[in-house]
Amino acid sequence: MKPRETTMDVSELKRPRRWHILIFLLPALIVYTAVMILPLIETLRQSFYNTVDGQYAFVGLGNFKVLFGDPRWAADFWNALRNNFFFFLIHMAVQNPIGVALAAMLSIPRLRFSAFYRTAIFLPTLLSFVIVGFIWKLILSPIWGVAPYLMDLVGLKWLFAPWLGRPDSALIAVSLISVWQYIGIPMMLIYAALLNIPDEVIEAAELDGVTGWSQFWKIKLPLILPAIGIVSILTFVGNFNAFDLIYTVQGALAGPDKSTDILGTLLYRTFFGFQLQLGDRSMGATIAAIMFLIILAGVSLYLFVIQRRMRRYQF
Amino acid sequence: MSKARTSIVRTGAVHFALIAYTLVALFPVFLTIANSFKSRNAIFREPLAIPTPESFSLIGYETVLKQGDFIGYFQNSVVVTVVSIALVLLFGAMAAFALSEYRFRGNTLMGLYLALGIMIPIRLGTVAILQGMVATNLVNTLTALILVYTAQGLPLAVFILSEFMRTVSDDLKNAGRIDGLSEYAIFFRLVLPLIRPAMATVAVFTMIPIWNDLWFPLILAPAETTKTVTLGSQIFIGQFVTNWNAVLSALSLAIFPVLVLYVIFSRQLIRGITAGAVK
User: Fold this and answer.
1) Model's pTM, two decimal places?
2) How far is A292 from chain B (nearest CA, A)?
C-alpha cells in the first residue's frame, strides 16, 4: 500500500472538524449497515430464539440441537450438507483443471483468435441461472433427444440416461451444469496470473533448458497458485450460497428425492415453506447461521493459512 | 525443421482444444436461439438444423409476447439494475474517496468493515431483511430490491475504487485546493472524471449479479407488477413446460439483452477481470 499524501494537514488546519469525510462516508455506511450488516446480525441472533409454548423465547443452542439431531430435521440437514460438499468437490475437481488448461492455452504468446476464444468461453458466465438451467434441462431431456443424438454421433448413445431425473446422477449433472456456466471465472483469473509472470522468469527457465510441459509444471504452476487459491475460495463461497440453479432445474424440493438438495434450497424451503411445509423463521435463521459459519471458516482458512503460505511465491 | 513442425502440430492441437471448448460453451446458446425461430415440428425433427424458410416460425414469440408481461418485467429489471448501479457507483466512490484521500482515526477499521461484504454473501441475512422490509412496507416494491442490491454491490465497489483513487495525482487535487475548490468540488469535478474507466469496470461487475438474481426477487418482490425478467422468465417458462416454442422463445428473449450488453462491454469486462481483480 502506498503512503497517503500528507498535504491534508493544510485543510486540517483550516477546518478543525472535517465534516466532509463523514458526508462522503455516510450514504454507503448507512445503506450497507442497515441492509446488510444489521440483518445479518439479527439473523444470527434469531438462530438462538424459537417459539416455545406459544412464547417467543431464548433457547440457546436449542435450534442447532434440533437441526443436528431431531429426526424431522437432521436427515434433511445432513443430506443437504453432504450434497453441498459434493457439489463443491465436483467444482474443484472439474472447474479448476479445465480452467487452468484453457488459461494456459490462451496465454500462449501470439496465439491467433485468442480474444475470440476468451470472449466466447466467458459468455455462459454472464447468463442467468434461469437461462442456463432451462437450456440444459431441454438439452438433457430425453423428449427432445438432442443429447442422445449428439452422443450417437460419437458412438456413445448407450451411455445416455435421463441424468437429471435419476437420484444417483442428478447431483453430478447439476454440478457439471454449474461448472459449465462458471468456467469463465477461473479461466480469466488464472489467465491474468499467467500473463503477470515476468518475462525474465520464463527466459531464465528457457536458458536452463526448462521448456514445454516441465516449464508449465515446475515454473508456471507454482507461480499461479495464489490465483488458484482465489478461485477456490470464490468457488467455495459461491457454492455454499448457491440456490438459483438448483431451484430452476430441480425445483424447490431439489429432486429427485432431495438428491440435489443443498443448504441454499434447504434454507429457502425452511424459511419460506413449500407446499405442505410451513415456513419456519427460527429454523431458517439457524440454517443461515450454519451457512455463515461454514463460509466464515472457509474464508478464514484461506486468509490465515493458505494465503499466508502462498505469499512466498509472490513477487 | 523438426522443431518448426512440432510447433505447428502443437499450435494445431491447441486450436483444436480451444475450438472444441468454444463449441461446448456456445452450442447450448446457439441451439436455443436457432430453435426458437422454428416451427414445432422442425424443433423435434431436426433440432440441430438452422431455421430454413420452410421451418421458420415466430409462433413462440407471439405466444410469449401475448401471454406474459415481458415488457413490464424488462422495465422492472432495467429500473432496478440502473438505479442500483448508479447508487453503488455514487456512494461507493464517495466512501472510497474518503478512505483513500483522508487520514482519520478508524480509517483502516472502516475499510475492513466495508470489505466484509465482499466475502460474506448478503443472502445469509435474508430472514431479517424480509422482516425489515415487511416492517417498513417495502415488500413487493422495486425500492426493496434496489436497497438490497446497493448494499450488496457497495463492498466490492469501495474496494476497487479506492485502489484506483490512490493513483490519482495529488498535485492535481492540491492545485484544486489552492484554487479554492471545496472538497466536494475536488471529488465531483476532478477525481470522478479521472476514474471513469474504473467506474465502468465496477458497473459491469455490479450489473451481472443484479440482473441475474433470482433469490431476492422471489422473496422480496414476487408480485406481478414488480417481477424482474429473471423471475418472470422462471415462472413463465415453468407454466409453459410443454409448449416448446414458447419456452425457447422466452429463453431467447432473456438471453438477448445479455448478449447485446456483452458484445458492447466485453473488452471492458475482460480488462477489468484481468487487471484489477487479481493482485
Assistant:
1) 0.85
2) 7
Prediction ipTM score: 0.84
- Residue indicated by cell numbers 445503506: A31
- Is the CB of A292 inside 8 Å of chain B's CB atoms? yes
Which CATH architecture group holds B70-277?
Orthogonal Bundle (1.10)
Q: How far apart are CA A221 and CA A29, in angstroms?
A: 40
Q: How far apart are CA B186 and CA A74, in angstroms?
A: 58
Residue at A34 is within a domain: no
Q: Could you tell me if residue A11 is inside a domain?
A: no
CA terminus-to-terminus distance, chain B: 41
Strand-pairing partners, residue B226, are none
CA distances from B81 to A31, B143, B201 (A): 16, 11, 15
Question: For chain B, what are the domain ranges?
Answer: 2-57, 70-277
| A residues 211-270 closer than 8 Å to B (CB) | 227, 230, 233, 237, 241, 243-244, 247-248, 264, 267-268
C-alpha cell at B240: 409453459
And the C-alpha cell for B242?
410443454
Q: Which phi and psi (to 5°) does residue B69 adopt?
A: -85, 65
| Tens-digit pLDDT profile for residues A184-197 | 888 888 888 888 88
Counting the structural domains of chain A, the total is 1
Q: Residue holding cell 526448462?
A: A210
